[in-house]
Amino acid sequence: MRYIAPSPEVREQFHQGQNARAYEMLGAHPVEDGNGSLWHFAVWAPNAESVSLVGDFNAWNPDATPMEKQFDGIWEIRLDEECLGAVPGKQVLYKYAVRGADGQLRLHADPCGFAMQARPDSASILCWLDAYPWTDQSYREDRKRARWATSPVSIYEVSPYAFLSGMDREAQEASCERLIAYVKEMGFTHLELMPVMEHLLDESWGYEIIGYYALSARYGNADTIRYLVNRCHAEDIGVIFDIAPAHFPKDEAGLRMFDGTHLYDHPDPRRSEAQRWDTLLFDLARGEVRSFLMSAICFWIEWFHADGMRIDSVSSMVYHDFDKGENAWLPNVYGGRENLEGISFLQQLNIHVHKQYPGVLMIAEETQAYPGVTRSVYEGGLGFDMKWNQGWTSDIMSYMQLPVSQRRWHHDKLTFSLYYAFSEAFILPFSHDESGKKSLYTQVEGDAQTKYAQLRTLYGYWIAHPGKKLMFMLDEWGTREPWHIQSKVCYEAGDCPPLARAVRDLNRLYRTLPSLYEVDDSWAGFQWLQANDSDNSVFAFLRWDRSGHAILCVSNFGDRGHPVYRLGLPVGGTLTELFSTDDTAYGGSGEWKNPRIVASREAWREFRYSAELRLPPMATLLLRFDRKE
Question: Which CATH number fits domain 1-132+248-361+378-388: 2.60.40.10, 2.10.70.10, 3.40.50.300, 1.10.10.10?
Fold first, then answer.
């Protein structure tokens, strides 16, 4: 990526928080100016006493290569390749030596650098981010016309540690191919990558980012991920990137006290301290910070062809008191807890992305029930396309952890979600948050056979419940141990244990039945048939599509089967079993199959018609309902 000299208008847009391509004017870029091949360096540090470029080329001497301060607080310098020691095959390391307003000298990595050293080192690396030979134009054109709200979306969340780290380029590409083949066979529509940006702390899983524009050295160079995305698009798989624009780590090589002042965070710790992670919150009232973050998010869409961006910890961006104790936060100018600047930043971001990149999904992880996360900005919302429904996940997993005998007293944990299911455009996540420290297998009751039966029942209920889907890697396998940050996962298509076969077939069924995805946003697509059978822990509902076709979902979370279980139906018709988690292919008994069932005119509770099913213990059934008035 060559240096693009900013016009006065572009510079002003950066300072006003309106620039979504700040990486074109800041950072290190090759440039031609008639004097041969040069590199242009630019960094924003308005309050610094001095800034110089340091690296191996000048023995890291902060007095050797001073930069020149421009009128707007951006420091710049141009050096030729010979001066930098840039020869083929050699990495050129550099940092900015910033003598701050407080008189201290600090060495910082380039905030807009495109490559960095692997931990524990933290220097930026001179990187010519050139064009990639993309072949995904057709996919991206189709994406512009996508209507995700009425389409099937089933996301497979993975950590790049699991399949990319510690490999050479050839092995990485082979691993990418295996993962893509596996995701395709398993029926997922999207692959979600936990943060691929550079970070120093492995245990943060990438959420404490130090290089917002730099692919982590753990995963090779930029072409590694671009290869993965390009090949996913060839197989009709979308790729979502995870990013954490709410907070940054306190490492001196990063953004903390960048020019001797709180340049990226607020000077009052009641605004800046993120106590949960011991990190610093971005000051979203500052225009340059807004441009920096908006540009970082758009960078991955523009240069890596991301099909979606999942924004981590939105709650800490919209509420000043998020995860803070009493008297540990500052209210807004009206005395409220809302972060007005954070809210406006997210609105601005979503408006820009949707205008510039139609079809790209903006996904929020927000845990405090902020109203209107997925409502249009023009209606007062934040403007996201989708939001993780972690309340649903928390409720259902707390239910699954109960002994079966106690579930009757907690029946509302599964019915409560329908009180708010249509208030947002939700994704139902079984994510790294749920199984990163303790596997789902160990979170459910019983012996091994019972645990797998419960997980099958749970996944069947998940696929039929209103909302898009997300599953963290290996949850489909029901592994007994949680995935560890240093563990590799070697994906092989066709190598599926029974639980994974159930997830595969559920995904495939989900994608072929509009009743399960077309109307996720209103009661027009959902109808309770049995919401009150707490004694048996049974739940039953219909999912309707826009054409009036329906799928019946019946889940028995109890350990007792029912040779005859009567359900009321709103109209007459026939029921045909399409899927049962009790099938022998998935590790079930296979003894409770339902033949074609004709509804009778026998009224049942509030319904005029009814039907009798054979309902296995600890199982979910999906049946096609062909209605006939």
Answer: 2.60.40.10
